[in-house]
Amino acid sequence: MTCHIVVIGGGPAGIAAAEAALRCGATVTLIDSNESLGGQYHRRIPAAFGVRHPLRIGHGYAAAERRARGLAGHPRCTYLSWAAVYQIEPRPEGGCPVVRLLRGIEGEQRTHHEIRGDALILATGAYDRVCPFPGWDLPGVYTGGAAQTLAKTQRLLVGRSVLVSGTGPFLLPVAQSLADGGARVGAVLEANPGLDILRRWSARPWQLRHSAAKAAELAEYLACGVRHRIPLRTSSAVIAVAGDGRVEEATVARLDHDWTPVPGTRVTVPVDAVAVSHGFTPQTELAVAAGARLTADGFVRVDDAQRTTSESVWAAGELTGMGGAQVAAVEGMVAGIAAAGADPTADRALRARHRAARQFVTRLATAHPIRPGVLGWSADDTVVCRCEGTTRADLVAAWSRTTGGSYRATKLITRAGLGPCQGRMCAATIDVLRNHHHPGDESPPLSTLPGLTSPTSARRPLAAPIRLRELADLDNEGSRNDQRSNRFHE
Questions:
Q1: What's the pLDDT score for residue 185?
Q2: Is residue 101 part of a domain?
Q3: Highest mean pLDDT range out of 60-64, 231-235, 458-462?
Q4: Weakest-pLDDT range from 140-154, 197-211, 280-294
Q5: Which of 47, 217, 296, 334 is the most interior residue, by most CB within 10 Å?
């Protein structure tokens, strides 16, 4: 009997998992929330724009398009675009969890579907992470991912004069997208010390022998910086922005090893936008709903075959550790082979690439950590939860009135994490601030957290926004749609 594998996520990890499973003879249902496959890395220009050459917007888009067409046209692959998975429910009898989703454009009429497979592969990716600083809630402050997406796929610049600030290699492609689009990028500001970064990346160079493609990309980004005269400054960061209704100036400071601003180094720079990325937070809501355990630093725990601690559930890509598109693709390939019932370790070359990928994830985390001094950037009136306008002072006052400052109590008292994003932007920061205020609680220290999301903050009954009307339809029209959609899989 052919194994039916459900893959959630259409980025590099999900695509590689689906392709590997198909090569092993499995039947695949590939679920993606976007219009087309590719994820954030290969996000496309919308088809409605009618662009003549839409694949010229970045590296590797033509190859990604060929792979996407191959999956969409494969006889054993069902591709569901515009599909929002809102619930994963473990079966009482065990086995692969049930996947429930809404298909269609949000705000319009969407249909309910229920997918039951033999194995589930989660490749849901990650969110941009921003550590709060005064003014970060002003119009003109964007996450690095948002700034890059607008520049590449919408042909919109977040500003004409932009600073790119944060930590990690992702700052470089963000700067490239903005500069190539016509923005003047004043500087790329890397918060970690340059010597530390160099020492981490240059240690044990043989472990990076499978990362030639990444080296080529790095050279391309550096060449872009030289071409556009973009200075790269380490031990520096935007620590505040100000303006009348929107960003008009940014405060840049030199940082010590722990990211504490060095006295006397603050400089005010006129800008109209800031793109910020302090790493990423793994999107673990569906993994937690499926019963998978997380590691101490908030990623999904997997074994050498990318198998989670939950029966019949595998995970790949950024939710198991930040490593970029190439690493995610290797992990997805391993997960697809294993979920189809084959042995991924039988391929010696793949085994070596997988080991190197995991080493790269560790290297990236140690070279670009978030340091404790970032807690000193925010003031009492700095907004932490942008959806609900909850400030740092509101959170501290709530924790002073409660024992231990549990995440649930914090939400009920301050509403932090109860807004439209459901804590996706603020939960990691709240966890760290809570631990700082209540040392010894469940959250580890900040210096160990390149992208924390706690099991508490990731546990939600519904993993995606769903309207009350759509919930009410579950027992009537939704049930009929489920029966029709499941005929193929049965």
A1: 96
A2: yes
A3: 231-235
A4: 197-211
A5: 334
Strand pairing class (273-277; 141-143): parallel
Instruction: Looking at the structure, tell me whether residues 121 and 13 fall in a common domain.
Output: yes
Confidence at residue 306, expressed as pLDDT on a 0 to 100 scale:
97
Strand residue runs (E) in 280-331: 280-282, 313-315
Q: Is residue 361 in some structural domain?
A: no
CATH of the domain at 193: 3.50.50.60
Dihedral, CA atoms, 27, 31, 36, 38, nearest 10 degrees? -80
Q: What average pLDDT does range 219-238 have in this prediction?
A: 92
The C-alpha atoms of residue 285 and residue 459 are separated, in whole angstroms, by 6
**Helices (H), ranges, 301-417:** 325-339, 348-367, 392-401, 407-414
Q: Is residue 373 in some structural domain?
A: no
**Domain membership of residue 17 as a residue range:** 4-127+281-346
At residue 205's C-alpha, the angle toward residues 202 and 210, to 5°, is: 125
Q: Which of 147-161, 209-223, 424-438 has the lowest mean pLDDT?
A: 209-223
Percent of the chain exceeding pLDDT 90 equals 58
Rounded CA-CA distance 167/367 in Å is 9
| 292 and 254 housed in the same domain | no
90 within some domain: yes
What phi and psi, each to the nearest 5 degrees, are found at residue 276?
-125, 135
